[in-house]
Each structure stands twice: as structure tokens, then as C-alpha cells.
Write a structure and sequence with these properties.
8-stranded parallel β-sheet; 38% helix; binds zinc ion
Length: 287
């Protein structure tokens, strides 16, 4: 799709602070959020006003297990800029059941606002049940391939088994498109996923001062292969680290990526939004 061009003519934000500098740009995409969580119940209209003020034009809401789907769908009814994924998170495998692939397939077929399968993946940081996680991961990768939807991949301390799984699929020409969400790996690991055609999404982690490997990845990632996200309510970027995160703060993530790449924030906002639109087939002109 044609990248939105409204920012091209906008003046550079003079001396804007990195955390707020994208406010004038009106074309950010928060490619991964969880505003369905209860800690948004009290003030979601204010949260939405702030993301609109910050220039967030589209949000992709991630799903961690199927019982969330009706509530996420209701949020998409309420906020037209929101699309969403359906899937089972690797730390939620207790919710995996024999009929889960059918449930996910029907949810995806029922609503064109379902733009991805996920979040799915492997997490060996908090759990050691690799076989159980693979048993939920593989049918979801098959489903994404079957439905021609991208996958949103959560991968923590598990780059090797995830790369092995995806490479085996690529060898059979059955590796879905997708994004490595909340990227926190090394440049070498990133290259492995890039070689498989995947996108890399940066979260508030890239704003943390000691995240050297993530900084290196933000500098090195090709322009046509990165997204930005909040993963809110988790991982609020500096200077709000430790507080509840929200979609408006994706501007701080984009600002830090811009600083690391030595590019104007308009470039990062426009590029990451165009990449998200291409991956998830979002129409940014209609929101
Ligand atoms: Zn998430």
C-alpha cells in the first residue's frame, strides 16, 4: 500500500523532547497492545484521547487466550482504529484445548478486523514446559499459514527453538509472515528472524538505558522491516518505566528508535506505520 504521506510536509518538531516529539505527526501505529486488561477499565476514554493526541492512528490488540475475544471485539466496536489478533500465548497453554484451533479459525473468519494469529510463541524465561508450548504453537502456525494471516510471535529466552521451528517450516515453504513482538534479542538472533522474512517490533525496552543489544538491533534493522509497539500495560518506556503503559507512549518508543538510527522521528513514524500497514494489511487512510 502507499505509505501515508501527511507527515512528509510537516515541519520537524523543533527541540521536541524525545518522549513527546511524535505528537505532531499523526501516523503512529501501536502494533501490540492489551487495553482489554482490567487496569484500563476506569479511564479508557481518556487513554483513547491521549493516543489520538499523540498521533496513534491504528492499534493492533493482541490476544493471550480465546476467552478474551468477545471483550477485544467489543473494544474494536468502540474504537474504529483498533484491529486485533486471536491466539494463545505461550504462558497461557493451560487454556489450550483440542478445539482451540477451531475456535480461533471461526473467530478469524467471523471478523475482518482479525488481522493476525497470536500472540503465540515460546517463553523459556518464565516456564520450562517447552513441549507443551510447542504443542500450542504448531497448530497456530499452521492456522496462520492456512488463513494467510501473519503471526505475532512472543519469544523470550527461546530464540534457538523458535528459529528451529520456523526454519523447518520455511524448508517446507510453510512459514507464515509475522513479527517478533517486543524484541529483546541479539543482533545475531534478529538476523535469523529477518532471514525468515519476519518483522522486528520494538517496545519500551528500547528506551531502557542498559538494553545495549536492543539498541544495536534498532540501529541495524532494515528500514522496511521494523515496527513499534507498547505491549501496554506492560513495559512503559522511559521516563514512565514501572508505571502502567498505554498506547500514547508508543511515541516515546518511536522517538528512541529515531535517536538510535540518527533519523528524524517523522521518518521512523512514517516507516514503522507503513511497515505495520503492509504486514497486517491495515488501511491507514480509513481510520
Ligand atoms: Zn503482548
Amino acid at each position: 500500500m502507499t505509505p501515508p504521506s501527511s507527515c512528509a510536509a510537516a515541519p520537524a518538531p523543533a527541540e521536541a523532547s524525545p518522549a513527546e516529539g511524535a505528537g505532531a505527526c499523526h501516523q503512529l501505529v501501536d502494533s501490540h497492545c492489551h487495553i482489554v486488561f482490567r487496569n484500563f477499565d476506569a479511564d479508557l476514554d481518556d487513554v483513547a484521547q491521549r493516543w489520538r493526541d499523540a498521533g496513534v492512528r491504528a492499534l493492533v490488540h493482541a490476544c493471550v487466550e480465546p476467552s478474551e475475544i468477545p471483550a477485544i471485539r467489543a473494544l474494536a466496536d468502540r474504537f474504529p482504529e483498533l484491529s486485533y489478533s486471536v491466539g494463545v500465548h505461550p504462558l497461557d497453554t493451560r487454556h489450550w484445548a483440542p478445539d482451540t484451533p477451531r475456535v480461533l479459525r471461526e473467530a478469524a473468519a467471523a471478523d475482518p478486523r482479525v488481522v493476525a494469529i497470536g500472540e503465540l510463541g515460546l517463553d523459556l524465561y518464565r516456564q520450562t514446559n517447552l513441549e507443551e508450548q510447542l504443542a500450542a504453537l504448531r497448530p497456530q502456525l499452521d492456522l496462520a499459514w492456512e488463513l494467510d494471516l501473519p503471526v505475532i510471535i512472543h519469544c523470550r529466552d527461546a530464540a534457538d527453538p523458535m528459529l528451529a521451528e520456523l526454519r523447518e517450516r520455511a524448508a517446507r515453504d510453510r512459514c507464515p509472515r509475522g513479527v517478533m513482538h517486543c524484541w529483546g534479542g541479539t543482533p545475531e538472533e534478529m538476523q535469523g528472524f529477518l532471514d525468515l522474512g519476519l518483522f522486528i517490533s520494538f517496545s519500551g525496552v528500547v528506551t531502557f538505558p542498559k538494553a545495549d543489544a536492543t539498541h544495536a538491533c534498532a540501529r541495524q534493522v532494515p528500514a522496511d522491516r521494523y515496527l513499534v509497539e507498547t505491549d501496554c500495560p506492560f513495559l512503559a518506556p522511559v521516563p514512565r518505566r514501572g508505571k502502567r503503559n498505554e498506547p500514547a507512549y508508543v511515541a516515546a518508543v518511536a522517538a528512541r528508535v529515531a535517536e538510535l538510527r540518527g533519523e528524524p522521528i517523522e521518518t521512523v513514524a512514517r516507516t514503522s506505520s507503513a511497515n505495520a500497514a503492509r504486514l497486517f494489511r491495515l488501511d491507514l487512510h480509513n481510520v
